[in-house]
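Kindly draft a polypeptide, keeping tokens residue-aligned:

***
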Amino acid sequence: MALKEGWKLKKDSETKMIVWFADGNIRTMYSIDWNYKFSKTKKREIGLARFYKKIEDYGLKATTIEIYDNRTGIRIAKFYKGEEIEINQNKN
């Protein structure tokens, strides 16, 4: 991160969330892992907490939600109609 530019969403996000909505739309969101654009540090927990709040807000509007590690591409969480379901790391 350059000090004058601040954090960049796709480039600097630790995780991403893909949401399949009940109306057929699909949306990809990137985590905001910093408190403000020019923060000196970022924390993955901040971004995940914001995702979990968003999942709660969506409720039944979203049929499936998956959260992935942005660096490795490994799925770290999956939700179906607002409820977290167990995932098998061997199968994506």
